[in-house]
Design brief:
about 200 residues
């Protein structure tokens, strides 16, 4: 991988995962509880806006998935702040996961691998069969994450939910992305772009 590609991957990782880290740190610094969740939500909203701006300036592109995720973060964040109820920002991942699962699944039913539209430049050389398999894998994974998020939201405190959301789900998503690598390589993915492909792991 070229030095420029490495820098692009590093920036992508920072811009994707940075807002989640800001969310977690803001909650801890604000003293937890309701006040902490509201401060963290506001910080999260500001962080995603900054992330979009930096992405456009530095990386020169922002994936459609990130645009959709940002819109939902701002929407559910605004409701959370207005009603002073953190359950709405907790529900946001469920809507994102279900939305992406439905979009990818619906595309496959129509014979289209929509993940190619979302991540095309990141997976050079990938065959149509590879795109279909990758879309199905991520659709099922998003569906599982939606169920898991609702279970956590219903059974855990906000602080525990946030900790698992930021650290646990992020790690699981990265592991899932790595697990897809052998399949992608068998279906034409350029081996030199493996690290960049993992850096583009969908998060929200």
């Amino acid at each position: 991988m070229s030095e420029q590609a490495k820098q692009s991957s590093s920036w992508t990782m920072l811009l994707d995962y940075g807002p989640l880290i800001v969310f977690f740190v803001a909650y801890k610094l604000a003293g937890s509880g309701l006040q902490g969740s509201l401060v963290a939500t506001l910080a999260f909203m500001v962080a995603v806006i900054i992330s979009i701006a930096v992405g456009l300036l530095v990386v020169k592109r922002v994936s459609p998935m990130v645009w959709i995720s940002t819109a939902l973060i701002l929407g559910f964040g605004a409701i959370t702040l207005y009603l002073r109820d953190p359950k709405f920002i907790q529900m946001k991942p469920t809507f994102i996961y279900l939305g992406f699962a439905a979009m990818l699944g619906g595309g496959l039913l129509r014979g289209k691998a929509l993940l190619k539209w979302l991540f095309g430049p990141v997976f050079p050389g990938l065959t149509e069969e590879g795109w279909r398999k990758l879309s199905l894998n991520w659709a099922l994974f998003f569906l599982a994450l939606a169920v898991a998020n609702e279970v956590m939201r219903a059974t855990l405190t906000f602080e525990t939910w946030l900790t698992i959301k930021v650290w646990g789900v992020t790690v699981v998503s990265l592991v899932f992305a790595v697990a897809n690598m052998p399949m992608l390589l068998r279906h034409g993915l350029d081996p030199e772009r493996k690290a960049e492909s993992i850096a583009e792991t969908p998060v929200e």
